[in-house]
Amino acid sequence: MKTSANVTKITAAGLSILFAGLLIAAPNQQGADSQEKPIRFEDYLPEGDARHLILQGCVQCHELRNTVSQRKTASGWRRTVNEMIWRGAPLGVDETETIVRYLAVSFGPDKPLPEEFKKRSDRKR
């Protein structure tokens, strides 16, 4: 009986020490990258005629990461939007042209890429 009580005490003490060690070590395992705020890609869509179309149509199939982090000419965006339509995006002709114009103006090759979108290794240089 006495041996069983000792084993229980030792097991409880060991588990307490293990749990305390995990609590202490857990914050130290998170690097500097985990302290960065998550990126909300919809925040990078400027106001404009097509913003609501993109928020309604495009995000049904994918997040906006690729959309807001790419820089293309109008013909490049037209090719991308047409591919999305081919894949099933529910857009009419008028909506397509509105989106292409919006993307070309908002995310054209002359627009700088926000720092948050650059690769982490590029930012450290």
Comma- or semicolon-separated keywords:
mainly alpha, single chain, 6 helices
Bulk shape:
elongated
Distance between the termini: 65 Å
Major beta sheet summary: none
Please count the helical segments: 6
Beta-strand segment tally: 0
Overall mean pLDDT: 78
- The Rg value, from CA coordinates, equals 26 Å
Name the beta content range. Answer: under 5%
Structural class of the helix and strand makeup? mainly alpha
Give the secondary structure arrangement, pairings included.
Elements: H1 2-29, H2 51-57, H3 65-69, H4 74-86, H5 93-106, H6 120-123
Helix pairs in contact: 4-5
Could you characterize what this model shows?
The protein is an all-alpha fold. The chain has 6 helices and no strands. The chain has helices at residues 2-29, 51-57, 65-69, 74-86, 93-106, 120-123. The chain is elongated and about 85 Å long. The N and C termini lie far apart (65 Å). The model is unreliable at 28-32 (pLDDT under 50).
